[in-house]
Design goal:
The complex is a heterodimer of chains A (109) and B (113). Chain A is mainly β. Chain A is built from no helices and 11 strands. Chain B has 113 residues and is mainly beta. In chain B, 0% of the residues lie in helices and 50% in strands. In chain B, β4 and β5 form a beta hairpin. Chain B starts with a strand and ends with a strand. Classes of the chains: A mainly beta (109), B mainly beta (113). At the A-B interface, β5, β9 and β10 of A face β5, β9 and β10 of B.
Chain lengths: 109, 113
Amino acid sequence: GIQVEQSPPDLILQEGANSTLRCNFSDSVNNLQWFHQNPWGQLINLFYIPSGTKQNGRLSATTVATERYSLLYISSSQTTDSGVYFCAVANQAGTALIFGKGTTLSVSS
Amino acid sequence: GAGVSQSPRYKVAKRGQDVALRCDPISGHVSLFWYQQALGQGPEFLTYFQNEAQLDKSGLPSDRFFAERPEGSVSTLKIQRTQQEDSAVYLCASSFYGNTEAFFGQGTRLTVV
């Protein structure tokens, strides 16, 4: 089945710093999503981005489907950005999202 | 409703007990997914429904796990004879159809003692 790898596994930042999170996947995909899991466990939708570039405030994402990777950019990080960021891609049948192991981000003031 | 709703939020079960976890998807969403998330791990796929049809149950870890969605809306995940290794957060997600954007509920944290 499709494999999803995220890097780095852990990231520690000072407030105000910028960061880039990477997601590599092993096969062509029709669906790719980025999520932020907050300390209460809720998965918050950040981007639905099977291809192209999107921006939402301080966050932006780019997926290069032909090269099988996606990047999540966080600019001017805040303490509220802390948590785990997951990339998930759909399997070929479209019946499941396959998650990476996540990147744990800690932002200190 | 406005989002995916799951109940209960927390469940403590004695080993060997049966449990039932409920998911109310976003109204009008055809696709419904169940996931299991162990502590410190990413969500792992359990099963997928398209309306009332269970089209993929490849992720169910054993025959003690059973899911249904009889009217194509609310879904129930049932775990029989719970074991300690079943302790996890169970997440439900729904999407309008297939590969469209999926939205997750807050999860049910199951602790088996």
